[in-house]
């Protein structure tokens, strides 16, 4: 039987994985079955490549991955950066100043590096969950080149306040909520949808032959671009409204259910 879709774009946290960051056997088997039948599996994550590659390894798959919310498209074979959206360093100055003044934890990311000004025990636990190993960096010496993502981390209540404040700022960079406890700041053109469009063009795949599954606000552009965009049941209402269909939650093997129903 022919597959209905040639490319399957999957968000990682809250979609492919449970909230405990576990890849269940049912989801693994469904994804591998689709790949075995010819579908290209593309993981599309807010994580950097270093956090996505272990998930690809667990799936026993290889290929192209979209990381940093679309800011870096990377080959898993040789870790080559296929395309990236770099930020203008000066634009980040007010965000860094805000975090220092308000005690908000932040990190800066190039395609493969993550840097923090200081590490707290809470942040260390959080990074370990995402296979991230940040290095301490003295930002008073200036910012490194090739910056793709600036991420803040804190309680949901703290992130709600930060989000409300930053939405009033000039939109030279975009800030997007990538989870209850995270906000990412990136190049204005960086998103999963544009990265997926660029990849599809390079592969000669029509958007109608693309299925995408996600669960959060940073997945909306991807869900809207794909021929079929599917939101997880654990998604916020706005994400569900942006999708063509809704599957079960990430604790009910929603990705497996969607692949078996639509692919």
From TrEMBL:
InterPro entries for this protein: Cof, HAD-like_sf, HAD-SF_hydro_IIB, HAD_sf
Membrane-spanning parts: none
Stretches of the chain forming a coiled coil according to its record: none
Pfam family, one: Hydrolase_3
Domain of life assignment: Bacteria
PANTHER family: HAD SUPERFAMILY HYDROLASE-LIKE, TYPE 3, PHOSPHOSERINE PHOSPHATASE
Protein name as catalogued: Cof subfamily protein (Haloacid dehalogenase superfamily)
